[in-house]
Amino acid sequence: MDPERLVLNPEQALNAICLDFRGYGPQPMLFCEVLRAIHGEAMVVRREPGSEGLWIAKPGSGKMRHLEGAELVAFMCDQVRGARLPPERLAVVSRQVFQTACRVVTDPATDAPAIAVDTGMATFACRQCGRCCRHLDYRDGITEADVARLRALDRQDILEWVGVAKGADGRNVYRIWVEPGTNRFAVPCPFLKRGPTADRWLCRIHAVKPEICRHYPVSRKHAAMTGCPGFDRR
Fold this sequence. Notes:
Blueprint: E1 5-8, H1 10-23, H2 28-39, E2 44-47, E3 54-57, E4 65-67, H3 69-82, H4 87-98, E5 102-106, E6 113-118, H5 131-135, H6 144-152, H7 156-159, E7 163-166, E8 172-175, E9 192-194, E10 201-203, H8 211-214, H9 220-225
Antiparallel strand pairs: 1-6, 2-3, 3-4, 5-6, 7-8, 9-10
Helix pairs in contact: 1-3, 1-4, 2-4
């Protein structure tokens, strides 16, 4: 994985956009920009002062409808997916959403158009503040590949903190971190320990930690929206 650039096929880009919409709570100003990029002046969008929702009239309809919360997020995902944006316009929307340079490239694996997203990670430096391990919710973040890797390493000391449930499709769904013998999630991460000073924290399983932990944050916006100070100048 190139830490400074992500290359996403159109479906991956759409998934990442919707993940952004769902992950950061209301972003009404961004949603207005995205709707204008998709529909131009055909869709009427109004912000209501003091509200995190939007008044929206779909193209061809003069009736305004107020949307907020999960309903607004679902609407935005439907709009982005339903627009069937060509690569150049998808790059524009990606640029708005991820707040970084995005451009159309050719995916070397498929020779098909893809979206290259600059992550801005070149200037990132972990401050070992422990904020991500103490406050963020990654309960569904561990993957089957992570679990397989830990099993191959015989890390039962870690696996005992991994919960297992059945998904709607009957496949195993793994969750972290669950107190052994219970259904209670551990807060904060049980593998976090104090560093040499009061403001520093260290990971006791750094060499084998799940990929979601290893790749946090994935971009400058991700850091800003989740309180990570890794881009702050000392």
